From TrEMBL:
<dbReference type="InterPro" id="IPR000276">
    <property type="entry name" value="GPCR_Rhodpsn"/>
</dbReference>
<keyword id="KW-0552">Olfaction</keyword>
<comment type="similarity">
    <text>Belongs to the G-protein coupled receptor 1 family.</text>
</comment>
<feature type="transmembrane region" description="Helical">
    <location>
        <begin position="235"/>
        <end position="254"/>
    </location>
</feature>
<keyword id="KW-0812">Transmembrane</keyword>
<keyword id="KW-0675">Receptor</keyword>
<keyword id="KW-1133">Transmembrane helix</keyword>
<feature type="transmembrane region" description="Helical">
    <location>
        <begin position="90"/>
        <end position="111"/>
    </location>
</feature>
<dbReference type="GO" id="GO:0004930">
    <property type="term" value="F:G protein-coupled receptor activity"/>
</dbReference>
<protein>
    <recommendedName>
        <fullName>Olfactory receptor</fullName>
    </recommendedName>
</protein>
<keyword id="KW-0807">Transducer</keyword>
<dbReference type="GO" id="GO:0004984">
    <property type="term" value="F:olfactory receptor activity"/>
</dbReference>
<feature type="transmembrane region" description="Helical">
    <location>
        <begin position="296"/>
        <end position="317"/>
    </location>
</feature>
<dbReference type="InterPro" id="IPR050939">
    <property type="entry name" value="Olfactory_GPCR1"/>
</dbReference>
<dbReference type="Pfam" id="PF13853">
    <property type="entry name" value="7tm_4"/>
</dbReference>
<feature type="transmembrane region" description="Helical">
    <location>
        <begin position="131"/>
        <end position="149"/>
    </location>
</feature>
<keyword id="KW-0325">Glycoprotein</keyword>
Amino acid sequence: IAKQFSISKCHPNFRSFGSPFFPSQVTQVMTSENQTRVTEFLFSMFPHLHEGGLLFFILLLLIYGFIITGNLMIFIVTQLDVALHTPMYFFIRVLSFLEIWYTMATIPKMLSCLVSEQKTISLAGCLLQMYFFHSLGITEGCVLTAMAIDRYIAICNPLHYPTIMTSKLCIHLTAGSCLCGFLLVLPEIAWIGTLPFCGSNQIQQIFCDFTPVLSLACTDTSLVVIVDAIHAVEILASFLVIALSYLQIIVVILQMPSAEGRHKAFSTCAAHLAVFLLFFGSVAVMYLRFSATYSVFWDTAIAVTFVILAPFLNPIIYSLRNKDMKDAIGRLLGYQKRAGGIER
């Protein structure tokens, strides 16, 4: 009775007997007070075991095993074989190293969600996944840009190539790529970490990404337009540098008098061009859409392309489609076989 009396004094429209009437302002306050703050998110895109989750788990586990094994093989071969101690294979080695950690940021959690009934991730875990996934992705984009510049100098200015692309410059370019990747995304992650999340906690994506997570925030997220613009500048800058480099490379290759020289130059650049188109094509479709929206199916399909498919194809492109790499793998395996025979 005392509580009703105090409320009726504050709000004259309140009726003590019968159905009470709360002004809209009071309703909003009580609604906001009763909302539970979200501390973990639920991935709603993964099927349960009896719905085909086990099949997807086995398939993804095999793909992940191939990604790790293939990139480790490339890393070890390019490190041990002296013939591959060139700037081009230095960047391939760096890219393989980054791919291992890039996939490690998302795929293990996907595997866990496919076999576990608890398809959840904590808020802190979600922020960390976003940070490492995007920072490693941006670093990869920068390394691909450095590889395009390397190929441009090698083909368009071959006489000065040894003096320009030194080991010191390669290390500086790699360090700059890592610095760019791990610093650019940090302010955005810090901003998302300050947002309140309440209400629904279902992420309609296969990993924590900016748009699905921001859609769950119960506050104004209009700053995401600025974030989208920053991402657009990053992607377009790398895309333009790489595209212009390969355009000039193609022009120079077509002017070569020797058919054998043209074939060798094209085969050298084909692998880089394929990785570039696969990586930047899917990333551009995903992050250069601004206010455009796709269906959940297409969002997931695009995510699978650059989260799973691109890392799966990279070892194939850089090893099976590369004669120097195949020869180096053969030399390494042959050496190990001879060494084993001598021991016996």
